[in-house]
């Protein structure tokens, strides 16, 4: 049998900010694009943010988005969490880089004082 390749994932630096650019595309402070995948569970809301280079169209105003489940902006806070523009807090479950793929899983927190 042949040897299996050795893969190594490592933690990545968290973006300081993520701003919505257009529906389903966020941009960080380094102009990298992030694509959200929303995961609705019985007890929580999660979002998998995948850093993927996509061509950017024209930016949209939040009012042009219509009803949107996710905040239009996230800001990194101490304690491995983000605060959304809607005052929600999101815990960083993991943030890894594996080859050319970078994923960050965020989970909405019920109340930051109890987490």
From TrEMBL:
The keyword Transit peptide does not apply. It comes from the Eukaryota. Belongs to the TCL1 family. Its main location: cytoplasm. Homodimer. Interacts with AKT1, AKT2 and AKT3 (via PH domain). Interacts with PNPT1; the interaction has no effect on PNPT1 exonuclease activity. GO terms for cellular component: cytosol; endoplasmic reticulum; nucleoplasm. Keywords: Cytoplasm, Endoplasmic reticulum, Microsome, Nucleus. It comes from Tursiops truncatus. The keyword Endoplasmic reticulum applies. This is T-cell leukemia/lymphoma protein 1A. It holds the Pfam family TCL1_MTCP1. The lineage of its organism: Eukaryota, Metazoa, Chordata, Craniata, Vertebrata.
């Amino acid at each position: 049998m042949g040897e299996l390749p050795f893969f190594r994932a490592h933690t990545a630096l968290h973006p300081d900010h993520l701003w919505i650019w257009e529906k389903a595309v966020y941009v960080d402070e380094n102009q990298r694009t992030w694509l959200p995948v929303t995961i609705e569970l019985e007890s929580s809301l999660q979002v998998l943010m995948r850093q993927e280079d996509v061509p950017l169209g024209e930016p949209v105003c939040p009012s042009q988005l219509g009803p949107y489940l996710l905040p239009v902006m996230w800001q990194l806070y101490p304690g491995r969490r983000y605060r959304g523009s809607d005052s929600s807090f999101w815990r960083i479950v993991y943030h890894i880089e594996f080859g050319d793929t970078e994923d960050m899983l965020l989970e909405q927190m019920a109340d930051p004082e109890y987490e």
